[in-house]
Design a protein that fits this description.
Elements: H1 10-28, E1 36-39, E2 47-52, E3 73-78, E4 81-90, H2 91-96, H3 98-124, E5 130-131, H4 140-152, E6 159-163, H5 165-172, E7 201-203, E8 210-212, E9 225-232, E10 236-251, E11 256-269, E12 275-281
Parallel strand pairs: 1-10, 5-12, 6-8
Antiparallel strand pairs: 2-3, 4-11, 6-9, 7-8, 9-12, 10-11
Helix pairs in contact: 1-3
Amino acid sequence: MAVSTTTTFNDLVGSIVSANAQSAAYANRVFRQLVRGEAVPPGFNNITIPRFQALTAASLSEGVAPSSSTWSSDGVVLTPVEYGVYVQISKSALHGDPFSDLAPYGDQIGRAIAQKEDDLIIAAADFTEAKNVNGDALTVTDFLDGVAFLEASNAPGPYFAVFHPYSWSKLRKQFDADTYGPVGVQNVSGFGAGFPNMNSYVGSPYGIPCFISSRIAANGATPTARDNLLFSREALGCAWVKDIGVDVDDNVVARAIDLMGWMSVHCDKLVDTYGVRLLDTLT
């Protein structure tokens, strides 16, 4: 009967760490499912995400063919670049207690890459429109004013909001039971049937799916407020050549295992008026 030893176990390092890294990444990234996501086609290094111009309906005359409307579009070119983290694990450490040591390596690599992707999307969400600019605590009125801005801008749905946990705590206290969607039904209210409860989902007040993320940071060199975000899915785009993954190689000279967790992505703003910043004081 074949027996796995500390030597043959090295063959399993790659699949175990990679699986842990991907699982942690998918479980911890918040923004990818909330924005326009596109894979770059094979053989290309970029992709253009179109923004179609609105068409206008006009009156028609019986028996007369109307003139064709010009349907033009512009777009945002997304050219993914690589981001990653390199970790070298001594074989002595793996041999000492491999099952206990492998999972944390994979989890930490996955979390680091997922947080980087969220940071890239947040950096792109520098929307011009902002609510609660007077430096006060965030209120339900600010939230609803943000929704009204998206609606007045004809931003297509669905809409999402992402808050820093402290900002969400302030806002959550102001919602009553009639306007606050449940979080325990394993379906994100506003997505429709069949969508599982997504990471960091905290409820759907007034029908707007809301999420929390500690990556929402204070803005400016001398920050006084956090920039929480409310936006249409079509406000932001993220394209990738290679999604999150981990390459594993045996480093013979160093008597170690090399782990290279990386991705190739580009995230950018598509339409400025399809998003709004909801400012909240740091105190």
